[in-house]
Amino acid sequence: MSGLISLTPQQFTLFQKFIYRQTGIWTQDGKIALLSNRIRRRLRERNLESFDDYYGLLTRGSIPGELEAFIDAITTNETHFFRMAAHFDWFAGPFLDESIARASAGNRERTLRVWSAACSTGEEPYTLAICLAEQASRLGDWKLELVGTDICESALATARTATYRPRSLENVSADRLSKYFVAAPGGDTWTVRPTVTRLCQFHRHNLLEPMPGRKFDCIFIRNVLIYFDSGSKAIALGHLVDALQPGGYLVVGTTDGAHDHLEGVERCSTFLYKKP
Ligand SMILES: C[S@@+](CC[C@H](N)C(=O)[O-])C[C@H]1O[C@@H](n2cnc3c(N)ncnc32)[C@H](O)[C@@H]1O
After folding, report:
1. CA angle at residue 204 from 37 to 190, to 5 degrees?
2. Over the stretch 196-247, which tens digit does the pLDDT of each residue have?
3. Cα separation of 27 and 19, whole Å?
4. Of 47, 205, 227, 245, which residue has the fewest beta carbons closer than 10 angstroms?
5. In CATH, which of 1.10.155.10, 3.40.50.11010, 3.10.20.70, 3.30.365.10 is domain 9-74?
6. For residues 259 and 26, what is the distance between their CA atoms, to the nearest angstrom?
């Protein structure tokens, strides 16, 4: 098959709707070349000649793992450590100060549950875990739990290896690098140390579905809703607010356009919301 074949407008619409139903991601009409490139990889993998054949195979669900592989191919997993430092300054500062003060006053338990939703390859939850490790002297007897979730299995596999290339680490200071990472021989990758990784667990989760289990004190949801439309944003944000404890905080990406779709939380700043 020629590497230059693109989706026709009709094929594009079929895939656009399928992706939206599965993930909430709305692929803009101008992205036909990008989507063609991404799906072509799956055609090559499956030795198929046409997008129509692939669409049939994908939607019949006859090949185990193909839907997951397709989602891996079409998602954008760009992320890095300490992305938007101000969000982590708030987490390590005012948020922990308030949590510790409330626990000292007997108004909450000494447990902290934090969810990095759509965490991609894990840099966001590990950054949060580094913030907690740096406050270890204040959190000695606390039970700390960081949950990272994503819809993309290959991103989660990378998160579980906790091994990163220098590009992901550009915002990590030399001091943090030596304290919380180990360099591979040759220095082309760095692995997060167990003092940090032991705080984090990773699961597959689709933002279009409710999050089961105990509620969270803080949820980070950044740089993913930008790919959603207003309908899927409202569904995802509804589930996220449901997953928060009363008094819990939601941290959103400043370009994600979450504000108009948020109900049941109070706005604290451009990136921060609190559940009363
Ligand atoms: C650009 S990354 C953002 C990573 C990180 N939150 C950050 O801000 O750096 C977007 C992630 O959202 C994930 N994603 C897209 N749709 C999703 C859905 N419906 N449920 C869960 N994750 C989703 C993608 O797989 C991708 O890893």
Report:
1. 75
2. 999 999 999 999 999 999 999 999 999 999 999 999 999 999 999 999 999 9
3. 8
4. 47
5. 1.10.155.10
6. 18
Establish whether residue 258 lines the binding site of ligand 1, counting it when its CB lies within 6 angstroms of any ligand atom.
Answer: no
9-74 and 85-274 in the same fold: no
pLDDT at 2: 45
Q: How far is CA 253 from the centre of its chain?
A: 11
Domain ranges of the chain: 9-74, 85-274
Checking if the pLDDT of 87 tops 80, the result is: yes
Ligand 1 centroid to residue 187 C-alpha, Å: 28
Residue 140 has which token pair? 């000695």
CA distances from 208 to 88, 134, 187 (A): 26, 34, 39
Question: Is the shortest distance between the CB of 155 and ligand 1 below 6 Å?
Answer: yes
Tokens of 160: 């579980």
User: Mean pLDDT of all residues in the chain?
Assistant: 96
| Beta-strand relationship, 190-192 and 163-164 | antiparallel
Whole-number Å distance, alpha carbon 223 to ligand 1 midpoint, is 7
- 141 is a catalytic site residue: no
The residue count for the chain: 276
Local confidence band at 187 (pLDDT 50, 70, 90 cut-offs): confident
Residue 3 has pLDDT above 70, yes or no: no
Q: Return the CATH class of domain 85-274.
A: alpha beta
Model confidence pLDDT, tens digit, residues 109-118: 999 999 999 9
Q: Is the CB of 232 under 6 A from ligand 1?
A: no
